[in-house]
Specification:
The chain is α/β, with parallel strands linked by helices and 471 residues long. The chain folds into two domains: 349 residues, 3-Layer(aba) Sandwich (Rossmann fold); 102 residues, ANL, C-terminal domain (GMP Synthetase, Chain A, domain 3, 2-Layer Sandwich), CATH 3.30.300.30. The protein contains twelve helices and 26 strands. Strands 2-1-10-9-11-12-13-14-15 form a nine-stranded mixed sheet. Helix 1 crosses helix 2, helix 2 packs across helix 3 and helix 5 packs across helix 6. The longest helix is centred in the first third of the chain and has 17 residues. The relative contact order is 0.09.
């Protein structure tokens, strides 16, 4: 049943509640080790005591520079207990960017599993993560700042979006109304905790006493699904392609696949249909705690219907959102700055429209649009058309400068069609002829860069395009 605190100032966190109600239920699955909620709760209470003893006070940000691990999960929940602000930072960030974040947000403490990262003017925490505490859990305020998630938006220095636990609970409860999650289910933590999608998995599982499963790099995803009886998996198209290509893949335990936003390639959808697997796409954003709309994965790119505890309006084709999921604001040197209009609406910069069935269709980002010969080009429209080709798994469209037209559309594509790609331009031109206008069809095609990785459910467009431009 839904988690509804009797009072936001007198309730324990969802994790401790799960430990109280279902102490022996598995909370974390690691390679060769299961940790139940009771044990995890005791570890987290002990860690909170260590953080307090280190001098960390309520409202102070604590940076965590790490990939996903058990320690990072414990640190998140311990920060919630003591009122500190969990501030995860990707370990792939350049040293100068990490330092700029530390300085800008006046972060006094950080934890990293290695000593390689050592930002100046910031104390490295020496923590023990395997201690057991016998102390009692304490009530917390669900409306105080809980965490920061960095979001770069379209460009520039990352913005630090601040959420409270009430935001996360509202998002998780709304998401569960369409994608059921129950005690005993197992969700693979395939998304990093410095992205909102990864953090959302922790909150969803704690609310219902489901298991968070850590990826096992020593075996294939197919093998881990079978061994750990995974029920929920969040995947990007490249991971799904690899999974379905394995002839030994058995997905009987899977209740739901949550796929990257936008249109899904026709071939992938057909394979999922043949296996009778429930797959979903969604429209979501960091500032709303993750999912806003969700629906069955379709090739037309619609993102489903509005979930509970959210509001959405469209003005001049641009999406505005508000509701219980909406973040507190951006962390700045002056404190947390709300970014809403006088009625509490947040301007997303995403273009969208409702279809005749009440599903949201995302038309693209305002800041992705470019002009070709006086005509507006929305890259996402072209990408959706390209992904209807049976040999294309993913596509990113961008502007290439042109002396005559100002810009011309070019496309980066992934899929088996990229073999001898220079000979396929005519074929792709014919394929797109009845789908999009002539001026929107890409003039050049590039194969997806080898080795490029996607850490969240959304492709990092800027990084991918820059790789092509540098090449």
């Amino acid at each position: 049943m839904p988690f509804v605190p009797a009072s936001v100032s007198s309730a324990i966190s969802p994790l401790h509640r799960a430990a109280r109600d279902f102490p022996q239920q598995t909370a974390i699955k690691l390679t060769g080790q299961d940790i139940n909620y009771q044990t995890l709760s005791q570890h987290i209470i002990a860690l909170g005591e260590q953080l307090t003893a280190s001098g960390i006070k309520e409202g102070e940000p604590v940076a965590c520079i790490s990939i996903n691990n058990l320690e990072m999960i414990c640190l998140y929940w311990a920060c919630i207990d003591i009122g500190a602000i969990f501030f995860p930072i990707s370990p792939r960030f350049p040293t100068m960017q990490v330092q700029a974040l530390i300085d800008t947000h006046q972060v006094g403490y950080y934890w990293s599993p290695t000593s390689d990262t050592a930002p100046r003017h910031c104390r490295r925490l020496e923590l023990q993560f395997n201690l057991i505490s016998t102390s009692l859990t304490k009530p917390i305020d669900f409306n105080r700042p809980t965490n920061v998630i960095l979001t770069s938006g379209s460009s520039g220095f990352p913005k630090a979006a601040v959420h409270c636990l009430a935001n996360h609970i509202a998002n998780a409860e709304g998401a569960r109304s369409l994608i059921p999650l129950e005690k005993g289910d197992a969700w693979l933590l395939s998304l990093p905790l410095f992205h909102i999608g990864g953090l959302a998995i922790l909150n969803r599982c704690a609310l219902v006493a489901a298991s968070v499963v850590m990826p096992d790099q020593a075996i294939s995803l197919n093998q881990q699904i079978a061994r750990d009886k995974l029920t929920h998996v969040s995947l990007v198209p490249a991971q799904l392609i690899k999974l379905l290509a394995d002839e030994n893949t058995k997905l009987e335990s899977i209740k739901a696949l949550l796929l990257g936003g936008g249109a899904i390639a026709v071939d992938l959808l057909e394979q999922l249909k043949q296996r009778n697997i429930a797959s979903f796409t969604s429209y979501g954003m960091t500032e709303m705690g993750s999912q806003i709309t969700t629906g069955p994965a379709l090739s037309d790119g619609n993102s489903g219907k509005l979930l509970p505890k959210r509001e959405l309006k469209i003005e001049d084709n641009v999406i505005w959102v508000r509701g219980e999921c909406l973040f507190m604001g951006y962390l700045t040197s002056e404190g947390i700055q709300p970014c809403v209009d006088q009625d509490g609406w947040f301007y997303t910069k995403d273009r969208g429209e409702w279809d005749e069935n009440g599903n949201l269709k995302i038309l693209g980002r305002i800041d992705n649009m470019f002009i070709c010969g006086g005509e507006n080009i929305q890259p996402e429209e072209i990408e959706a058309a390209l992904k209807q080709h049976p040999l294309i798994d993913d596509a990113i469209v961008f502007a290439e400068p042109d002396a005559q037209f100002g810009n011309l559309p070019a496309a980066i594509i992934r899929g088996s069609i990229t073999h001898d790609l220079h000979t396929k331009t005519g074929e792709l031109e014919s394929f797109l002829a009845d789908k999009i206008a002539r001026f929107k069809r890409p003039r050049r095609y590039y194969p997806w860069p080898e080795g490029s990785e996607q850490t969240g459910l959304k492709v990092n467009r800027k990084t991918l395009i820059n790789e092509i431009r540098k090449g």
